[in-house]
Design a protein that fits this description.
alpha+beta; nuclease; six-stranded mixed beta sheet
């Protein structure tokens, strides 16, 4: 059983427990602000004090300059329109995790951020939206930070 299935099962059990006890699930605020554990291979530079949620998504933000160099390279490729090193770069991101703001199918697209030392695509991604928004995940969609231009908040 994969870790993702285990987490899904635990989430379903927690939801069922809340329903049975009559408790509210909360106010809809995101718990994705907790810092994920990282290995040395995937550790990004620690963001400065940029944890203010963005107005658009409610997610924590990270300045582009604070992203790992490989993520900045991926953003440059996206701006240039490619060419992309991975066949799945640019595919539709379905937002099954429902962490990003809900949009119609096809709004989001994902791109691989190379992870030094990984033989496969690794866990890091940039997800772009049709309105120009950009998100970064270094834990394969468990959490996201909205990427803001340098100097923006």
């Amino acid at each position: 059983m994969t870790a993702r299935r285990v987490r899904l099962g635990l989430a379903l059990l927690a939801g069922l427990s809340l329903l049975l006890t009559g408790c509210s699930a909360g106010t809809g605020t995101s718990t994705a602000t907790a810092a994920p554990s990282r290995t040395a291979a995937t550790a990004a530079p620690a963001p400065s004090a940029v944890t203010t949620p963005s107005r658009a998504s409610g997610l924590p933000v990270v300045r582009e300059a604070e992203l790992p160099p490989e993520a900045r390279e991926t953003l440059a490729l996206i701006r240039a329109g490619g060419p992309f090193p991975y066949a799945r770069d640019g595919v539709v991101f379905s937002n099954f995790e429902r962490i990003l703001p809900r949009r119609e199918r096809g709004h989001y697209h994902e791109y691989t951020v190379r992870t030094p030392g990984e033989r496969d695509r690794g866990a890091r991604r940039i997800v772009t939206g049709g309105d120009g928004e950009r998100y970064y995940t270094d834990d394969h969609y468990e959490s996201f930070r909205e990427v803001v231009a340098d100097g923006a908040r």
